[in-house]
Amino acid sequence: MSLIQTDNKTIVGKLERVKTGVRGLDELLSGGLPKYSVILVSGPPGSGKSIFCIQFLAKGIEEGKKCLYLTLDKKIEGLLLQAAELDLNLEPAIQSGQIKFLFLNINKKLIYESMINEILSGNYDRVVLDSITPLSEMPIYINNPEFNNEVENIDHEEVSTGSLPVRRLHLHYIMNALETAKCTAVVTSELPSSSTNYSRDGLSEFLADGVILLSLDPTMDRRKLAVMKMRSTKHTLKPQNIEIGKGGIQIV
Ligand SMILES: Nc1ncnc2c1ncn2[C@@H]1O[C@H](COP(=O)(O)OP(=O)(O)OP(=O)(O)O)[C@@H](O)[C@H]1O
Ligand SMILES: [Mg+2]
Q1: Which of 210, 209, 146, 193 is nearest to 173 (CA)?
Q2: What are 206-247's pLDDT values in tens digits?
């Protein structure tokens, strides 16, 4: 269900679904991700987070949607090469402007401004942020106009890099921007293999509408995907065996 606001009444409409493009996953999610949701995709290095994101946007392109890939990693070319090897060729969509890759420089204080301006002005249907981890670990600049309204209620003495209030503020700010933009978003989080949380910051999983966990089992030489949370959706919690190959990730 979704709430549609009109002049003087609220209508309860049918919840629309957005296909992930991951073969076998949409069937486990009653057709896909809830439209306008923010989904966290977590996992250790090499578990397929970026491939998941590319696949999600490639599906959007196939459906004629406008897509944005925000990354804190300079190596966009490497990402595109890896995708092309998997037959996910985004080059034509980049040329036509249907998809935009935007590198966010973590050293710039106004990183949020450029990110949020792009999200809000671009009219995007699908947005990826790969990954949220460096952002949530950034210090907050008290004099930064981006945060002026947000920090008013916080004891400034407490605000230090990596503290819980800082992480909460960062994540709250990012999630808010994605929600305001009326897009369906996938946000990745780096996870140490031993972690019992679903994100490195330990908070994103509570703020996100859905959590998809990617994991590696080197002993069994297996990769897995588990849906740990998905609002408005009946789903299994059972980890699914996955493979990475032509077309990207698929449930096997
Ligand atoms: N052409 C391919 N065929 C099969 N498997 C591949 C191929 N390309 C990449 N992979 C697998 O995908 C992994 C990389 O996936 P991806 O870049 O999505 O990981 P990630 O979770 O984003 O990692 P990181 O946290 O380091 O960014 C590789 O380590 C490899 O195991
Ligand atoms: Mg990655």
Answers
A1: 146
A2: 889 999 999 999 999 999 999 999 999 999 999 999 999 999
Answer whether 102's CB lies under 8 Å from 69's CB: yes
Instruction: Choose the residue to mutate in 74, 76, 82 for probing ligand 1, maximizing ligand atoms within 8 Å of C-beta.
Output: 82
Which tens digit of pLDDT belongs to each residue from 76-118? 999 999 999 999 999 999 999 999 999 988 777 677 788 888 9
Beta carbon of 48 within 6 Å of any ligand 1 atom: yes
Could you give the angle at the alpha carbon of 2 between the alpha carbons of 210 and 16, nearest 5°?
70
Name the architecture of domain 20-251: 3-Layer(aba) Sandwich (3.40)
Distance CA 49, CA 27 (A): 20
Which residue puts its alpha carbon closest to atom 26 of ligand 1? Answer: 45
Distance, CA of 89 to CA of 170 (rounded, Å) = 33
Per the DSSP assignment, residues forming a β-bridge with 189 are: 42
